[in-house]
Amino acid sequence: MTGTCRVGNLSIGGESPLTVIAGPCVLEDAATNDQIAQHLRETCRGLGLSFIFKASFDKANRSSGRSPRGPGLEDGLQELARLRATFDVPVTTDVHEASQAAPVAAVVDLLQVPAFLVRQTDLLIACAETGKPVNAKKGQFMAPREMQHVLAKLREAGAGNILLTERGTFFGYHRLVNDFIGLGDLMELGAPVCFDITHSTQLPGGGEGVTAGRPDRAALLARAAVAADVPAIFIECHPEPARARSDASTMQSLDAVAAILRSARAIHEARRTDETSVSV
Fold this sequence. Notes:
Elements: E1 5-7, E2 10-12, E3 19-23, H1 30-47, E4 50-54, H2 73-87, E5 91-94, H3 101-105, E6 110-113, H4 121-129, E7 134-137, H5 147-156, E8 162-166, E9 169-170, E10 176-177, H6 180-187, E11 193-196, E12 202-203, E13 212-213, H7 218-227, E14 232-238, E15 252-253, H8 254-279
Parallel strand pairs: 3-4, 3-14, 4-5, 5-6, 6-7, 7-8, 8-11, 11-14, 14-15
Antiparallel strand pairs: 1-2, 9-10, 12-13
């Protein structure tokens, strides 16, 4: 039986509404952040979906050292705190080093462990010890069942609310694939699972010093993942995707996100109706 993950006043999994974790890859200027947050909040409210705003204060794993990384820890946390208060929504961000866990936890509602760092024991322990919920993203280099060891590390360090995120698996050079049999294995580990529909379309290192992607496939992945009964989806979006400071090649436009969420909600509700009729 898959459990639930409490994030602030919302619950992910069980009989709760579909949860949307979304925002820009890295924090943008305040006006752009506001535009994204407001659009996502209103869209999710209108559809009866739960919403968590996501943006990074630092992108430490860019393809090129010349790529923008974000405002940094201090300025980034100030901006996340402002967005949280202004729009009255829970927020989440990446934690890259164990020393960042405590200051980040003082501001955000959900700590995110990046996929490339998900086996770092000290980082997992530091995040768990904050008492905040933790979203551990499956490494692109890991089999789904290997995430049981990540879960064990977090639980042994005291984490009570854990979310696991599927974001694709390396398939040779410059390619990620999503294994839906593996998704089922991940879901059987006991923690609710989020499906990252934008990072899953990456072609890592496929551009000239940047990651390329197939953003046209994000909507397909969202439909498939929600049909597979994941309780949350992760989306990175921007008013002008080509101008995003990070992950421009996989970013969704705000209009595209609205269409994806309408379809995802319909599938989520259809699954519930089907389950109810079968149980009766």
